[in-house]
Amino acid sequence: MKKTLLFLILFLQFLIAFSQNIGDITLPLGISPGFNATGTVYKSIIQSDGKILVGGYFSTYLGLKQNFLIRLNSDGSKDESFEIGTGPNNSILTIALQNDGKIIIGGAFTSYQGFECNRLARLNTDGSKDNSFDVGTGFDNIVRSVVIQTDGKILVGGNFNSYQDKSQRKIIRLNSDGTNDDTFNIETGFNGNVNSIILQNDSKIIVGGSFTQYKNLTSNSLIRLNDNGNYDTSFVTGTGFNGSVQSIAIQTDGKIVVGGSFTVYQRNTYNRLIRLDTKGNVSSGSFNNASGFDGTVYTVAIQNDGKILAGGDFSKKIRRFNTNLTIDNSFNIGEGFSSEKLPNIVYGCTVYSITLKANENILVSGLYTSYNAFTQNSFTCLNPDGNRNTDFGIKIGFNDNIYAITKQDDGKILVGGEFTSYNGIAQKYLIRLNPDGTKDESFNIGTGFDNSVNTIVLQTDGKILVTGKFTEYQGIEGFWYIIRLNSDGSIDNSFKYSSKLGIINSVVLQPDGKIIFGRGFEQNSSDFYLVRLNTDGSRDTSFKTKFDVYLYTIGIKSIVLQPDGKILAGGDFYAFNGKNQKYLIRLNSDGTKDDSFNIGTGFDSQILSLVLQNDGKIIVGGEFTNYQGVSQRNLIRLNSDGSKDNSFDIGTGFSYDASTTPSGVITTSIKPNGKILVGGTFNSYQQNNQNNLICLNSDGSKDDSFDIGTGLNYAVNAILQQDNGELLVGGNFTTYKKDHRSAHLIGIKGNEVTLSNEDFIQENKQFSLSPNPTKSILNINSLNETNNYSVKIYNLIGRLIYTNENVNSSIDVSSFTPGLYLIKIKTETRETSQKFIKL
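== Calcium-binding protein ==
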């Protein structure tokens, strides 16, 4: 009775689990590591409740849209109670907190939530605009620094020359309602930008920037003002600095630490960091950093123990100094910050802000993509010893695009693309995952590749063919765009291929082990676009082709080997053997053109995807908009002779509303029931919204049961169908269904029924299981004296959790979580499914 009751409970759990809808997430892989990779964080500030306000020039956080401002919880997760709506329309450079919790933001923005507020605004604690603070027409240029006095008045510095259409050069003090405080008299003000303002305990104001005058009096980059705006003559900087001051911090003893781009103070060399006494003299000692910094110091912070942190665009981007100004070698930053994956941006890799938490942890903001080889975009929390704080933020998944996904027979998954890390750890361009999404540590690629992986193909012997843009692997040069690896990730030295011509885009294996690949444009290489290799990597000279491709294009992008040995090739070519042949061709097995395949005038643009149906019909996807002169947007099905299959009707087809990017079908996959999965760059199908992934019925109509809501926010490059119907989808995307963060890889339910109820009905007596339920050993008893068989075990949500190709009697399931499981047992002649219970 107890056994029956337990089974009924578990079976009910099964029914609940399989009420899961198509399109639901089954494997939530890939949460983006912080802010968007090309974004910049300029400022962070910590509230009294430990929450963190972050401002800068960014558009996403953890893969979700977030414009220029966010509030985080103390663990780095987004504070959903802080709702900015559309937020500011441009970057935030400075943030200050009032005693009542209201927030002053300054920067380059001209509106907030659609309301005009030029470069300065005050927000309520929930992120809404505080309309009691009225800046009128505001500032005419950037606000860089905001400081709130103890009396509630607000000091503002920046690049501006006016406030509310009245002259106000680089600095102003406002009353708490946003009006100008006329008691703060700056007269002509500064002649150069104000970058930093800090208040002393005696209410005097230290100002740093790129100015040379204040009120027409010489003052090079640093000055101290009295509370009324007058020049404090007791603070003497003499000839001052020869470059800008970017940051100022005050020690508890009143000494002043100054960072910037300067190399001289009062005619003596002090490279970019200096400490002054309360009168403006150089404090005894100097920062022991060899010859000083080799780049600008943009931020300075002083810890409770008196140690000094400096950040900027110098080597490693952050340093800590002891109170005697020597380098603190206990602060271990390893490789420091870097921006390896960023394009050439004006400011390169830079730390702009350092903020100290109450627990002595250190928040570091800037423009970077990694810290000490760990992927982290623009915002990082460090422990006091300099190591990354692993409890802060969410760091799961890939940091860049995925182009290829391939599944091994044991359920492990090979993934290739442009990424250089997985779960924040360096992983260059190729990885093998376990079925649950964890990294397979037995697959060791060392330092990996030097450039992206485009395709992955598994050989029957378990070896792995990899192609892409790379020219080296594990630091060894000479692997020009193709390599064969052993199953553990080591180099298969028996594969010798040495041609340096053209990036390889596609690969197929013949049954005899020979390898056909297609490559991109290369000067003077018409006979190298489609090549066949012998199993050892040498060129098969019996296979000769000659394509003419468009300049600097993908060349041959997709290849399909038909069961009869004929070869379909698609890409960006316009001729074969000197004769017109646009974008698609079928070849005989020796490389000659198959004249029985007639596409007439062909396509008008490149082909990116080819898939062969079981009936011999061909699914073709790409960027084309017509076929044989008739409108056909991005997808078509051809009969085996090249004629259009009119039973497959896509109507107006696909479209994409971005002006610079054409719509395109990049990948297609045929489901066992004949339906067609399509991924690419599009946001509509037949004039209905559909973002980058769709399932079509066999007649071309949309499969409405495949409901993915708002879909994926960027391109889908690869689709892998698993045995249980689950789909692994890879690409450029960072979100799914708008609210689900998923950087570049996600698992979703793809079938109407992943494991049917019938899977749990023992329809034959070829095998029996005992004991059932079991706590540890599950015996598989063959009633027909079958000796060896393969086994796959699935959990309640249909995910493959165990596979073994050579089982002969029993399985140890002691490590399984208690619950109901499905076991599929396969022999040479049949497959059977049975249930068992793990106690």
